[in-house]
């Protein structure tokens, strides 16, 4: 690693950080990619780990393995605790610091409880593999405890599953939990009927999947209802505890509450002391640089990116990847002496969401699909975007297996509290 | 579930408890199987989860799913805290109790630190899925931290892996860790050479795999040494802490110590207040009943079973399954009115162990194999004994993939402390 070479430090090995690093492969720079996890996670399928369809190792891969051929890239497993923009270095958890010439912040997001962080312990969100195995444990433990518990009210609460938030994650969780209860588990219990479970999806807005065109939201709602999901639109969760949730003024007893409502950006804006929106995202310039810091870029869920028409770029994988590629092109141009800012233009490729294993909605803007065809299309798209032949083969086989046998492959209760 | 029917309570869904329950399928009884885990674990392959070759969901299945067709069987996820032999009931963690007519204790074993329980936090053993992911995390974190740490001594300690115990588990861990360091990881690190890692296997006796015939032990030792493993025979670990181990009087700095030395039975003997050996195993009669309790059986690692020639039945899966089948036959005979004790005769089918992905040793008594043929035979035997077509297919594919591409499928650092 020659010290003369331009040194790019990338924080975060998600879709944005990884795409950026790969796009820089042929440039005369050395790159240090830092992540606090050793693995890149294929977030779009994380809900399938949480609902027992896929195993943890089928959607995550070691970042350093993905970058093993890029000799100019050094991968470090470490937690970044701050940035010193004056000295142009980042600070790590062990107090050491690393100098950069250019810094790319792709640190992602966590979920937000809108000022009610105390809700988190009762209503876990879904961002990491641990989140997924925690949700998986809670869902499966609810059925197991119901098989033990003879008090009717307690059993009702155990068999009531509340999902807060009607975006793609909430819709996908609700659909797969309903299928688990009504199609996968019946016949395996003797004292309860899992099909009696209630799955309730709560959305504050007037429709699910607000990013999609209205008729697809309508279709998704009825598809969920066909699976037995109760969809409550225009309802706010006003309280959340070990006993259940409060919807407006009514209490709904539940032992399993899942949070799919809001995201909050990682503390990158605080590190830099720059302006952020209320979700904590760095408000970047149209060239994705941090205002006042031409050598610092923010991409993916870390950044708030405005489109020419004033709309914001959505927090989805394709957007993060486009931003990563754009920043790579910008840095390469600069290395060639061209410093004129290059505005980022987001191209929206579409929105996809599944409802169980029979229906999906796809909105390509001018083109849209729904139902079974959409489900297959969704499947192929996700297999295609999975990293590595092995994962494509294994995930495809897992789905084929679940689809044909109706049994799921990863119904494990691990970690954390075992039975009461 | 009619209360008149003979009620058999089985504690433990391992090889013994599961085999017993299945063998009882056609009998006029009702059965309650209780386990504190929701899954049956295929222990013989657990070391492959610990060393990143297999994912957690490939070797574990929900017990109630495996027994879904046995309508007379109720599966409960619960922890048993005691037995009241006078009232003929077991007591659960929530204080409730369940009455039995016949009780089968198949509660398995944990590892034993020979009176040094304080060593456990520094030297985890391998019995549960959590143990496996803990060991996996420690092994992978050692390499990750070495890539960060610039102090040469610290780096040495991080790249030194100590395995205590030369039985099959110790040998298999040592071999697969050596391969990970020397074949899988090189090329993915920039600041360290993983191939420089030291793997040290410490065995108190005068040979590894003491259950095998001497020439196979000799072969296993040289096969390990070919993989770069240092095998120390006739050495005792006298201390174990965060800094490393003490072998006799010499200190060996190491940040990763794995325990494969001893097992201790679950507290079944204490529950009953009956005689146990120093490993805590219930000393059962030759019909596998607990002395003084004709309606209580103990099988698998819970029991110490003597063979006519005075040797003890080994704590391996085939033995537990044979005992499970024998107890089922005994109970069926009793239901038919025949109470004369039926002595259990153990048939030793053989011993198997792998050394990495190229060699194995198999001892069938009159027949023995070693080397590559043995490795393939070992693989087929384990695929065959896996439960369910899906797992056979997926594990076979995982192995084929690792074997041909030389990359492993589950290199995930999850749970517990992330980087320092």
TrEMBL record, chains A, B:
<keyword id="KW-0520">NAD</keyword>
<protein>
    <recommendedName>
        <fullName>NADH:ubiquinone reductase (non-electrogenic)</fullName>
        <ecNumber>1.6.5.9</ecNumber>
    </recommendedName>
</protein>
<keyword id="KW-1133">Transmembrane helix</keyword>
<feature type="domain" description="FAD/NAD(P)-binding">
    <location>
        <begin position="7"/>
        <end position="324"/>
    </location>
</feature>
<comment type="similarity">
    <text>Belongs to the NADH dehydrogenase family.</text>
</comment>
<dbReference type="Pfam" id="PF07992">
    <property type="entry name" value="Pyr_redox_2"/>
</dbReference>
<feature type="transmembrane region" description="Helical">
    <location>
        <begin position="375"/>
        <end position="401"/>
    </location>
</feature>
<dbReference type="InterPro" id="IPR036188">
    <property type="entry name" value="FAD/NAD-bd_sf"/>
</dbReference>
<keyword id="KW-0274">FAD</keyword>
<dbReference type="InterPro" id="IPR054585">
    <property type="entry name" value="NDH2-like_C"/>
</dbReference>
<keyword id="KW-0809">Transit peptide</keyword>
<keyword id="KW-0472">Membrane</keyword>
<dbReference type="Pfam" id="PF22366">
    <property type="entry name" value="NDH2_C"/>
</dbReference>
<dbReference type="InterPro" id="IPR045024">
    <property type="entry name" value="NDH-2"/>
</dbReference>
<dbReference type="InterPro" id="IPR023753">
    <property type="entry name" value="FAD/NAD-binding_dom"/>
</dbReference>
<keyword id="KW-0812">Transmembrane</keyword>
<dbReference type="GO" id="GO:0050136">
    <property type="term" value="F:NADH dehydrogenase (quinone) (non-electrogenic) activity"/>
</dbReference>
<keyword id="KW-0285">Flavoprotein</keyword>
<keyword id="KW-0560">Oxidoreductase</keyword>
<feature type="domain" description="External alternative NADH-ubiquinone oxidoreductase-like C-terminal">
    <location>
        <begin position="348"/>
        <end position="404"/>
    </location>
</feature>
């Amino acid at each position: 690693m020659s010290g003369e070479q331009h040194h790019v430090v990338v924080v975060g090995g998600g879709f944005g950080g990884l795409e950026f690093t790969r796009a820089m492969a042929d440039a005369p720079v050395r790159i240090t990619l830092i992540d606090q996890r050793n693995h890149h996670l294929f977030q779009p399928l994380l809900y399938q780990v949480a609902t027992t369809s896929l195993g943890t190792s089928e959607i995550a891969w070691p970042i350093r393995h993905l970058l093993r051929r890029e000799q100019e890239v050094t991968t470090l497993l470490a937690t970044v605790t701050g940035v010193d923009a004056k000295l142009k270095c980042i600070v790590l958890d062990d107090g050491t610091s690393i100098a950069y010439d250019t810094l790319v912040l792709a640190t992602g997001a966590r979920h937000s409880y809108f000022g009610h962080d105390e809700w988190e312990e009762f209503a876990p969100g879904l961002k990491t593999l641990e989140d997924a195995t925690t949700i998986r444990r809670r869902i499966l433990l609810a059925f197991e405890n119901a098989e033990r518990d003879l008090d009717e009210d307690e059993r009702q609460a155990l068999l009531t599953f509340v999902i807060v938030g009607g975006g793609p994650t909430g819709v996908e969780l609700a659909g797969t939990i309903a299928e688990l209860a009504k199609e996968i588990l019946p016949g395996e219990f003797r004292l309860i009927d899992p099909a009696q479970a209630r799955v309730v999806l709560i959305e504050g807005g007037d429709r699910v999947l607000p990013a999609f065109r209205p008729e697809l939201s309508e279709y998704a709602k009825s598809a969920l209802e066909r699976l037995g999901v109760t969809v409550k639109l225009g309802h706010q969760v006003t309280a959340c505890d070990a006993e259940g949730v409060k919807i407006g003024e009514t209490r709904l007893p539940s032992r399993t509450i899942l949070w799919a409502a809001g995201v909050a950006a990682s503390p990158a804006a605080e590190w830099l002391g720059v302006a952020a929106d209320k979700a904590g995202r760095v408000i970047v310039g149209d060239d994705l640089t941090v205002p006042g810091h031409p050598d610092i870029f923010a991409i993916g869920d870390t950044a708030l990116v405005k489109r020419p028409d004033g709309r914001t770029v959505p927090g989805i994988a394709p957007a993060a990847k486009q931003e990563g590629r754009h920043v790579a092109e910008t840095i390469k141009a600069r290395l060639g002496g061209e410093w004129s800012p290059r505005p980022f233009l987001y191209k929206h490729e579409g929105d996809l969401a599944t409802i169980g294993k029979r229906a999906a909605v796809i909105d390509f803007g001018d083109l849209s699909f729904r139902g079974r065809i959409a489900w297959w299309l969704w499947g192929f798209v996700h297999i295609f975007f999975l990293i590595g032949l092995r994962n494509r083969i294994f995930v495809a086989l897992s789905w084929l297996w679940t689809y044909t046998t109706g049994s799921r492959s990863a119904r494990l209760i691990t970690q954390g509290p075992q039975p009461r």
